[in-house]
Amino acid sequence: MFRTSVQNTEVACAEVAVIGGGLAGVATALRLQAAGLSTVVVEAHGHLGGCAGYWRHKGFSFDVGATTLVDFEPGGVGAELLASTGVPPLAGEALPGYEAWLPDRRVSLHRDQAAWHAERLRAFGDDRAHRRFWALLDQLATTFWAASRRGVRLPVRSAADLVRDVRILGADLPQVRHLGRTLGGALRDCGLAEDRALRALLGMLVEDTVHSTVDRAPLINAALGVTIRGAGLTRATGGMHGFWRTLAGRYRSLGGVVLAGTRVSRVDGSAGGFTVETGRGPVRARRVVFAVPAPTAARLHDGLGRRLDRYLRRDAGEMGGAVLVFLGVPADEVAGSSFTHHQLLESYEKPMGDGNNMFVSVSAPGDEISAPSGHRAVMISTHTSLAGWRLPEDAYRQRKKEITEHLVTQARRVYPRLGERAVVSATGTPRTYERFGFRPGGAVGGPHQTLRNTNQFAIPHDLGGRGIWLVGDSTWPGLGTVACVLGSRIVAEGILKEKP
Fold it and tell me: Minimal CB count within 10 Å: which of 60, 120, 291, 475?
């Protein structure tokens, strides 16, 4: 299946070419390879991972986006991927939850559901309004986590899709009436719109999971995002580096081919005869999966670009970025907390993002893939607008310095000595993601989810027509590791049913 050659001659030939080596792309390729189809993954970066990848420096391995895997435990969406492709269960830490640090209180976001139910009433109020609100979120989360695990499909593209989804939802079908509601609307209906602490916590959670705000986040998607700890959070040994060792190793053992450090310039042809033009020469394939941001996919294939145009125009103002601070520190600088993951909010009065709220992730003790002996890897992240980083070089460097100092200072609420003796200190911005991650404009995570662009209005996986598929954070269900894995299942099943 694989051929090596010189520039401008064929370098690979496969039944399916997957453009983009992030989680959605590799999971799709892995499923197809395990099912007997030959695949090749073409990745511009030097190794697989994408926005669920990693960066290595001075013996440390830092996660560059996702730091945890959602629903990879028995019965989960991720666990189904592993089991169906012969990947062994992941070695790692089942996180007990994490700590939310609000300006006037701390809230333990427990994985254990009974502990979480008690904690949220303690922290925000044990009254009828709060109980009603949490009961609604619990009900929606239970319904739609189960539906996701059973393979629900959106947007509905055919009568077969509709019949499938109705069967999956069964007696819970009436819950679809909430598709037109927002999280903010649910708060208002419960009389909690002015509960600033509750709104702040929910705001941090939905920004991290659906990249939206309380008032704009679709209620069902928000319910899933707020409850991801109950679905199971796992940090693989070695973080995302350790995870990719396992996943990529299994893919290659099945005969899958990875062309890393290989940029795609164009895709031509039609079903049964595509040519993927790369810097190393053409790749021939019968079908193509675009596992890259929608704007990139549109640029690479003319016909797909025309079909994507209205979605791209709709979502042009909904893209966002991230800032990450990477610290490699002596282990005693992060001692003293029972949680390794924390969310912090500086002020109720400021908008979310840009350092007002942040997520802190620390590698597990003894994890020597992530950090040398006696040390730990620390990642501090915050969401940011893209426009604020379009600056002259001097102004850019100053802003980068200021936000780095701010993020580390705020993280010292949890770890007072953090960064005092750092072995590694580096910061990534939207410019970094654009340069090294090949993300258009530095945008990450797909568009902010709203009622206008998600669920039934999301970019369909089969939008490109016969032989062309899309998967990843630009398509339904959207963001995060569990969403990428679910999308890979939908696309792989579609390709396997498609006539050659």
Answer: 120
pLDDT for the residue numbered 500: 65
Cα–Cα distance, 16 to 317 (Å, whole number): 33
Q: What is the pLDDT of residue 496?
A: 96
**Burial track 30-51 (b if 16+ CB lie within 10 A, e otherwise):** bbbbbeebbbbbbbbbebbbbb
Contact between 326 and 426 under an 8 Å Cβ cutoff? The reply is yes
Element (H, E) at 259: strand 257-259
What pLDDT score was predicted for residue 2?
Answer: 42
- Domains along the chain with CATH numbers: 12-58+236-317+445-497 (3.50.50.60), 112-225 (no CATH), 321-442 (3.30.519)
Secondary structure (3-state) at 368:
coil
Q: What is the DSSP code (8-state) at residue 492? A: H
CA torsion sign for 370, 438, 436, 447 is negative
Specify whether the CB–CB gap between 295 and 311 falls below 8 A: no
* Cβ-contact 127, 267 below 8 angstroms: no
Report how far apart, in Å, the C-alpha atoms of 66 and of each of 113, 242, 303, 308, 405 are: 23, 13, 32, 27, 22
Query: How high is the pLDDT of residue 143?
Result: 97
Backbone angles phi, psi at 229, to 5 degrees: -65, -35
DSSP, residue by residue, 78-97: HHHHHHHHTPPPPPEEE--E
Question: Which residues of the chain register pLDDT less than 70?
Answer: 1-8, 500
Residue 396: its pLDDT value, please? 97
Length of the chain in terms of residues written = 500
Spatial distance between the Cα atoms of 346 and 357, rounded to a whole number of angstroms:
6
What is the three-class DSSP state of 254? Answer: coil
**Buried b vs exposed e over 431-469: b needs ≥16 C-beta within 10 Å?**
bbbbeebbbbbbbbbbbbbbbebbbebbbbbbbbeebbb
What letter represents residue 408's amino acid?
V
Cβ-based burial of 21 (10 A; exposed 0-12, middle 13-18, buried ≥19): buried
Q: Which two tokens stand for residue 447?
A: 């568009």
The DSSP bridge pattern shows strands 97-101 and 341-345 to be parallel
Helix residue ranges, H only, 328-450: 393-411, 430-436
